[in-house]
């Protein structure tokens, strides 16, 4: 997937992204870091089709997809997990997974069974309402809902937000497992240091523009990046 020279925002006169660039190779995990208000979450929403571009292009396998609806992009293999409101609180865990599979209803049951085998914590809570889950469990459920469509590219917006350090560690392990199974991942994450340590490549976004990109580990060890974005 490539996002080229993306300009967009939340209103006609609003430009949050001012030429942002993003590329993700097959099987790659990319961490997007930057200051608050840089446009990191906005870039994910643009790729997912939730925002209309003013200019620029989004390509999948070299083919433009910026004219496609979010549903059609999901059918092409792009799944987005928002930071908030990412599960149906009053529905059971199983019902949430069924909702995640609505765009491709054929074979729903075996896909759910496979996810229960993959995530035992969800299997144990299959009949429980999503609102009864812990914060970390809800995030795992949200990602599992996205996996119901067998995405090629998983977009994660601040997955560890509001979690305890222990719960965040478990969640990051889950993200690594998803990536190792072959799904490309783009992650916007408040814990920039942890995100860079598990990612293949890092991208720095500042004021709506991509100002840097490179190997994630090297970026995590770079003195300037550490001073500006990682707390020293």
Would you kindly provide a written description of the structure presented here, covering whatever features stand out?
By secondary structure, the protein is an alpha/beta fold. It has a single domain, classed as Rossmann fold (3-Layer(aba) Sandwich). The protein has 10 helices and 10 strands. The protein has a 6-stranded mixed beta sheet with strand order 6-7-8-3-9-10, sandwiched between helices. Strands 2-1-4-5 form a 4-stranded antiparallel beta sheet, covered by helices on one side. The chain is globular and about 45 Å long. The model has no long low-confidence stretch (mean pLDDT 94).
Q: Which features would summarize this protein structure in a list?
A:
6-stranded mixed sheet, 38% helix, 232 residues, 10 strands, alpha/beta
Low-pLDDT segments: none
| Average of the residue pLDDT scores | 94
How are the strands of the biggest sheet laid out side by side?
A: 6-7-8-3-9-10
User: What summary fits the major beta sheet?
Assistant: 6 strands, mixed
Radius of gyration: 17 Å
Percent of residues in helices: 25-40%
Separation, N- and C-terminal Cα atoms? 32 Å
CATH class: Alpha Beta
* CATH T-level fold name: Rossmann fold
Amount of beta strand? 15-25%
Helix-strand pattern, N to C? EEEHEEHEHHHHEHEHEEHH
Question: Quick summary of this structure?
Answer:
Helices cover 38% and strands 23% of the residues.
């Amino acid at each position: 997937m490539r996002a080229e020279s993306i300009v967009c925002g939340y209103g006609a006169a609003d430009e949050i992204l001012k030429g942002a660039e993003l590329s993700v190779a097959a099987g790659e995990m990319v961490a997007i870091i930057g200051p608050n208000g840089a446009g990191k979450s906005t870039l994910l929403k643009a790729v997912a089709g939730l925002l209309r571009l003013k200019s620029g292009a989004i390509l999948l396998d070299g083919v433009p997809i910026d004219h496609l609806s979010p549903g059609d992009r999901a059918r092409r293999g792009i799944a987005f997990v928002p930071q908030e409101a990412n599960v149906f609180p009053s529905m059971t865990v199983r019902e949430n997974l069924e909702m995640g599979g609505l765009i491709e209803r054929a074979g729903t049951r075996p896909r759910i069974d496979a996810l229960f085998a993959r995530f035992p914590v969800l299997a144990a809570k299959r009949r429980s309402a999503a609102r009864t889950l812990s914060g970390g469990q809800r995030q795992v459920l949200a990602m599992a809902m996205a996996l119901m469509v067998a995405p090629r590219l998983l977009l994660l917006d601040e997955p560890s937000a509001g979690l305890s350090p222990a719960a965040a560690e478990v969640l990051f392990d889950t993200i690594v497992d998803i990536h190792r199974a072959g799904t490309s991942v783009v992650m916007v994450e408040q814990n920039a240091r942890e995100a860079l340590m598990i990612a293949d490549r890092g991208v720095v976004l500042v004021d709506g523009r991509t100002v840097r990109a490179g190997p994630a580990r090297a970026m995590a060890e770079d003195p300037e990046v550490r001073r500006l974005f990682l707390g020293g």
